[in-house]
Each structure stands twice: as structure tokens, then as C-alpha cells.
Amino acid sequence: MSQNPLQKYFRQPKLTVPLPSKGLFAPPDAISGDPSNLEVYAMTGMDEIILKTPDSLFTGESTVRVIQSCCPGIKDAWHVSAIDLDHILMSIRIATYGNLMTVEHTCGNCGTENEYDIDLRPLIDHFDRSEYKNSVQVHELTIKIRPLFYQEMTKFNLENFKIQKRLMAAAQDFDNAENQKIINDSYREIADLQNDMFLKSIESVTAPDTIVTDQKFIEEWVKNSEADLFDGIRKLIEDNKKAWKIPSVGVQCSNCGTPAELEITMDQANFFVKKS
Questions:
Q1: How far is it, in rounded angstroms, from Cα 31 to Cα 73?
Q2: Largest Cα–Cα separation, the chain
Q3: CA 147, CA 64: separation in Å to the nearest integer?
Q4: What is the pLDDT of residues 181-218, one digit of tens each?
Q5: How far apart are alpha carbons 113 and 92 in whole angstroms?
Q6: Which residues contact 112 (CB under 8 A, 6 or more apart)?
Q7: How far is it, in rounded angstroms, from Cα 86 to Cα 268?
């Protein structure tokens, strides 16, 4: 097959970034090349169209396709870890539109609608400085945890959305006996979903004489353990979650000068729309 004469006009990598996880939690075939030097390309016109497809956004398919398009070194974006995801999406945003992203905010004091140009580079630096702590000692056991994969996060979010939707519908007529049962069942499902997320985060348990990785054994052990062990693991997970949260950005209202903290999110509906 002859070479495309337009190949020299193909897009080129705009950035080279390190994955915060260093690829440590990814399956063997999910990432190719050096995770500390991941090439990032700007989005194509097709990528932008994909991000405007509501159903694909909802299921996570759009995000996966765009990540694999803009980061060819990532072969399976479903297995991108939670601590890499925001870093990757910000890098794609910078490669496509530049460092600044316009964020809208309504002042809580005077009601003025403000627009702020937020520099994404300090937020990227935050992830590069963050540390993921993956083990905790509880008595004579060492528990290793891992960040969830994007596929797991998406599945949990979809299930939670369905339950919450069913719960809200039933709450409209709480006095109905059938709806009361739906509400009780929904709360149990939410609890089960949260427990499932917790269990999937546990990678292994090391005892003095063995290392256990089988999820069925780990689940049985968690269900038959005392509260201090559960609390120790949960605290580690929560501490990591706080450490890897996108930091808020301090701003002031252009009209009255009231300070506010902007929460930056990775919502594709606004994150990948160029406003700056």
C-alpha cells in the first residue's frame, strides 16, 4: 500500500506528560511505551463530534475513544486509573485549546455572572506532586489498595444513577406501600454498590504466612472483620480521594469583589468546549 501523500500534514503530539500512576495499576496491555513520557495530541474534528453524542457520553464510550485518539500510548482507556483520568483529560484540553479554560460562576452575594480564565497548568502540577498511598497496616495485616479503573467508575456511576432515578420517582408518592418498598430496596442497593466499590479497591491482603489476592476470599474476610479494620481501609481510601481531588481556584466577583472558590470539574459538556 502506497504512503498517504498528506501524511506530513497529520497532527503531531503537542505535549509529553507523565502519568501520575506511572502505569503501576494498569493491566499489561493497557499502556504501551513509557508511562512517564506519554504523547498527547490535540483532538480531531471527529473527536469533538464524538463528545457531543449524549448516549456515548453517558456510558463513557466517548471519553474512552477520545483518550485513545489523543493519547495513542493508551491502548485501553477503560483501564485508565482514577488518579490518571483528570490529568489525561486536562492534558488533552491543553493540547487542543491551550492553557486557559473559561469557567462561568454566579456571585452568591450580588448575582453577577462572571467568567474567569483558569490556567490549567497549576492543576496539572498538583497531580504531578500528589502521592497515592496504597497500603495500610492493621494489626498484623498489610492491606494494599488500588485506584478504581475508569470502567469500574463508569459502571458504578451508571448503576447509582438508575437507583437514584428510581428512588426519586418513588418518593413522589411516599405513602404508597409499593413505593415505600422501592425506597427501602433502593437504599439497600446503594449500600451494596458502595460496598462493592470498597471491595474492588482492595488489591491484596498480606498476613504473616500468606498473601491473598482472591476477591472472594477478601470479600468474605471483610464481612467477618471488626470495625477498626474496615475503618482503617476506608480512611486510606478517603485520604487518597482528598489528595487527588482537583484543587479549587480562588476568584473574586468583578462587580462586588466577593471572594469565591471555583470547583473545576471534568464534565465533558463544558470542559471540551472552547470559550477562551
A1: 6
A2: 72
A3: 17
A4: 988 999 999 999 999 999 999 999 999 999 999 999 99
A5: 28
A6: 106, 253, 254, 255, 256
A7: 11
Reading the block at residue 191, the C-alpha cell is 449500600
Question: Could you tell me which residues come within 8 angstroms of residue 224 by beta carbon, excluding any fewer than 6 positions away?
Answer: none
Rounded Cα distance between 216 and 238, Å, is 23
Grid coordinates standing for 79? Answer: 483501564
Cell readout for 13 is: 503530539
Burial of 191-230, coded b for 16+ CB within 10 Å and e otherwise, reads: eebeeebbebbbbebbeeeeeeeeeeebbebbeeeeeebe
Strand partners, 15: 40
Residue spans per domain, the chain: 7-130+247-271, 135-243
Closest by CA to 92, choosing from 78, 105, 73, is 73
Q: Which residue has the cell 462586588?
A: 256
**Tens-place pLDDT, residues 6-60:** 988 899 999 999 999 999 999 999 999 999 999 999 999 999 888 877 776 778 8
Contact 122, 23 (CB under 8 A): no
Rg over CA atoms, the chain = 22
| DSSP designation for 264 | P
Alpha carbons 273 and 33: distance in angstroms, whole number: 30
Q: Are 232 and 268 in contact (CB under 8 A)?
A: no
- Half-sphere exposure of residue 231: CA atoms within 13 angstroms, side-chain side: 4
